[in-house]
Design goal:
Shape of chain A: elongated
Number of strands of chain A: 2
Largest interface: A-B, 78 and 61 residues
Distance between the termini of chain A: 99 Å
Largest sheet of chain B: 4 strands, antiparallel
CATH architecture of the largest domain in chain B: 3-layer Sandwich
Number of domains of chain B: 2
Radius of gyration of chain B: 30 Å
Strand content of chain B: 25-35%
Number of helices of chain B: 1
CATH topology of the largest domain in chain B: Rieske Iron-sulfur Protein
Order of helices and strands of chain A: HHEHHHHHHHHEHHHHHHHHHH
Number of helices of chain A: 20
Oligomer: heterodimer
Largest sheet of chain A: 2 strands, antiparallel
Distance between the termini of chain B: 80 Å
Structural class of chain A: mainly alpha
Chain lengths: 493, 180
């Protein structure tokens, strides 16, 4: 018997017991609309492929990673530097997470634009939203397992948000942390979520998602003017796939296969070139010289928390996510029928573009966080030479105090320094010396009052320096009610 | 093995007749399983939610001799959280800011910003606490100076005994459960 014959016999023997070949072939060859075998329909299967890779690299990492607060960070360093190819597996897992989030978001945007969530595919969308949340949940819990300073203070931010819950805030915090502080049981809880709970959810809902796609058929290419009606859609779809249908395999699957191959290759190259992500500093809360930032997929939320008006914050932090997620779930029930084509759904297109633009801009803002003091600016960024040449000793003293009193942490000079407050380069064109004194001593707007921390002589010196902060061609500000005093114009360089 | 072999099929079910004993057993089975599920679920939930129970997390702990804290200065102190496990490692080393005004007059601030819990940093030159996350700023007495924080810095209860500074510590302060 040839090898081929043996394989065929074993297959036949198995199929006699299992009886699965029929359903499998039926599923693989189920007819799909010719129009849906498009390059636009490849993102879901690519996200699935990356998820499978994540399971494999995750399993590999679990064989070495120590899910214990006192050892986790060291085991990550061991993975990066000692374990053969540990760096590559960590890089694949970390970048794989980014790829997966990207693919899931693109997939969701495509489904939204093509109206694929409409009747009868509402439940497919609902399962998809669960999968999006599970993917983001994996990303957040994974960031915690990368147990470094960002993970530690990220948990602190999560606890602070949970602690704002009315009445039971304190208890919710302890439930999340597994105890009164961020420590061993916190990591164990997030390990359980990341390795057991959410992957289980993912597998279950991917199963449901795929089952529904097979049962209800892949969405046809949306044609402007072809409306979805509850009583006629199913018959129309049936007619479409029987007249103009093709078997999913290989007709549509070939594009999926090509794209999956490209994505995996891109992921491998990215991982090999970029290397593993972190960990950064060890999770020692006593090291406070740290500037905690979440990974990019939560950076937009981090930005929102800085930019919301403080009085709305607690309310929006607690209700905003619930409302947003609820709205996502409700999409197919709000517009379950009617026009599918994005060409005839300007509001939907606008919602999508605005959402992506908002999140994109918030992420961009988060990368340089203009609302945060630049903690090292006072001791590390230079004073522009033009601002100190030819100045009086008093003005120079002011320039020194601007550094020494941490003014630069919030105020830039020559484009360097914090961006919390206005740059000081043209202060004299906006404020008179009296107004500068008032602003420094009493504070106001977002500025702390420095009256208690500066002597009158120090205030004098700073004001003398700031009074020189105007371009040569632009006179300093003056009170319109008062006649122009000669010393105010003489202060220009 | 030929293709003529029919796949194995379960034998056809016998037509159902209403049998009162069968209905009774079914109901009894459902009832027993509901009771068993409750018996099982209560301890499982109790186990997972055990951190939520009321427990004396807070206790007095020393920050060291008073000489470590010069008057009119703010110093970083670190204590080992009183409630800890061997595998907590460095995460149980909790920092705090100690301000000694004069004599035995102290203020002990939590490290966590009241906005979202990031570690505030003390700048002795400008006498301000600044937060690196969203720009919260506090004065030397812990009062909010600017930025999004909704309240002053959290303060530990403290006392001076046997020449040492003691604070009552043990849990991460949040708006839901501030320290004192």
């Amino acid at each position: 018997m040839s090898l081929r014959q043996i394989a065929r016999d074993v297959g036949a023997w198995l199929d006699h017991r299992l009886g699965l070949s029929g359903p499998i072939i039926e599923a693989a060859e189920h007819p799909v609309p010719r129009s849906s075998a498009s390059w636009w329909y490849v993102f879901g299967s690519a996200a699935f492929a990356v998820m499978v890779l994540q399971f494999i690299t995750g399993l590999c990492l679990a064989t070495v990673y120590a899910p214990s607060a006192d050892r986790a960070w060291q085991s990550l360093l061991y993975l990066n530097y000692d374990q053969p190819l540990g760096w590559f597996i960590r890089a694949m897992h970390g970048w794989g997470s980014n790829f997966m989030i990207g693919l899931v978001c693109i997939h969701m945007a495509q489904v939204f634009l093509f109206g694929a969530y409409k009747y009868p595919r509402e439940l497919t969308w609902v399962a998809g939203v669960v999968l999006l949340l599970a993917t983001l949940g994996m990303a957040f819990t994974g960031q915690v397992l990368r147990f470094d300073q960002d993970a530690y203070w990220g948990l602190g931010i999560g606890a602070a948000i949970a602690g704002r819950t009315p009445f039971i805030g304190g208890r919710v915090v302890k439930m999340i942390l597994g105890g009164p502080i961020i420590a061993g049981e916190t990591l164990s809880r997030f390990f359980t979520l990341h390795v057991f709970v959410i992957p289980g959810l993912l597998i279950a809902f991917v199963g449901l998602h795929l089952f529904l796609v097979l049962r209800l058929g892949i969405n046809e290419w949306p044609m402007p003017g072809r409306l979805v009606k509850r009583d006629t859609y199913l018959a129309q779809y049936h007619e479409l796939v029987s007249k103009d249908g093709e078997p999913f395999f290989p007709f549509a699957a070939q594009k999926d296969l090509v794209f999956i191959g490209l994505i995996i290759a891109a992921l491998v190259v990215t991982a090999a070139v970029m290397g593993p992500i972190g960990p950064n500093g060890e999770p020692d809360p006593a090291i406070i010289e740290t500037v905690p930032r979440p990974d990019f997929f939560f950076l937009w939320l981090f930005s929102v928390f800085a930019l919301l008006p403080p009085w709305t914050e607690t309310f929006l932090m607690l209700t905003g996510p619930v409302a947003a997620i609820g709205l996502l779930f409700l999409v197919p029930f709000i517009s379950g029928t009617g026009e599918k084509s994005y060409r005839r759904r300007p509001v939907s297109v606008m919602i999508l573009v605005l959402s992506f633009m908002t999140i994109g801009i918030l992420i961009y803002l988060g990368t340089y966080s203009p609302w945060s003091p630049h903690m090292e600016a006072w001791s590390s960024v230079p004073t522009p030479v033009d601002y100190v040449s030819g100045r009086t000793p008093l003005e120079l003293q002011g320039a020194v105090l601007i550094q020494a009193k941490q003014c630069r942490n919030c105020h830039a000079l020559g484009g360097q320094g914090g961006m919390r407050g206005p740059a000081l380069d043209r202060t004299a064109t906006r404020l008179t010396p009296d107004q500068i004194v008032r602003q420094i001593v009493q504070g106001g707007g977002n500025m702390p009052a420095y009256g208690r921390n500066l002597t009158p002589a120090e205030v004098n010196a700073i004001v003398a320096f700031l009074a020189t902060m105007h371009p040569a061609h632009q006179p300093p500000a003056r009170l319109a009610a008062r006649p122009q005093r000669p010393e105010q114009t003489d202060a220009s360089p | 093995m030929s293709e003529a072999v029919k796949p194995l099929q379960p034998s056809e079910a016998t037509p159902e007749k209403p049998v009162s004993r069968r209905v009774f057993l079914l109901k009894l089975g459902i009832l027993l399983n509901a009771i068993a599920a409750a018996l099982f679920a209560v301890p499982v939930i109790g186990y997972l939610a055990s951190p939520m129970r009321k427990f004396a997390w807070m206790s007095w702990i020393s920050l060291g001799p008073l000489e470590n804290f010069p008057e009119s200065q703010t110093r970083l102190a670190t204590y080992r959280n009183p409630y800890t496990k061997p595998w907590d490692g460095m995460t149980a080393n909790i920092p705090c800011w100690v301000r000694r005004e004069h004599g035995d007059n102290f203020r002990v601030f939590a490290i966590n910003c009241t906005h979202l819990g990031c570690p505030v940093r003390w700048f002795p030159e400008s006498e301000l606490f600044m937060c690196p996350c969203h720009g919260g700023v506090f004065y030397s007495d812990g009062e909010r100076a600017s930025g999004p924080p909704p309240r002053a810095l959290y303060q530990y209860s403290h006392k001076v005994e046997n020449g040492q500074l003691w604070i009552k510590a043990g849990q991460l302060p949040t708006l839901g459960e501030p320290l004192a």
